[in-house]
Structure formats: C-alpha cells, structure tokens
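Example record for the data management plan.
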Amino acid sequence: MSGSEAASGEATPEERRALFRVVRGEPTDEELAALTVVIAAAASAGGPPPEKPRDLWSEPASLLRTPLPPSPGPGAWKASALPR
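Corresponding structural encoding:
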C-alpha cells in the first residue's frame, strides 16, 4: 500500500475481500496456511449446540399426581384374592 492510500484509509479490492490481513511481521507461507485453516475451522464450527439430555427431575409433569386406578367393577372382590 502506498503512503497516500494509507493516509486516506482506502483499501484495495483484494484487502476488502480478504478474510484477514497481517499487520505486523512477515509470516511464511506455511504459517499463513495454518492460520487460514484454523480460522476456517472456527468459522464452520458455529453450528447449533448439541441438544442436552432431558432433566426428568425438573420436568413439570412430575409435579402432577398420577391417576388413580380405575374404580372396581362387579366381581372385583373375587379377583382381589387371585394371584397376580
């Protein structure tokens, strides 16, 4: 970048399109490639978080009373003595 571009703050089309830019130092091609891979992996790992397993202790349905057994019908007293 020339001195006049740096003073005016205008970036070249390549700089506007770049994912990142080196501000200080002179990295090797291998270092830039490694940095590109790390940034690309971090950008692609932004998917939805994994679903947490349900916590049954705080389930609202556990606060409700379970239904009572059905009312006994005719002949239920005979069946009460039978082995289950």
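Summary line stored alongside the record: The CA atoms of residues 55 and 84 lie 34 Å apart.
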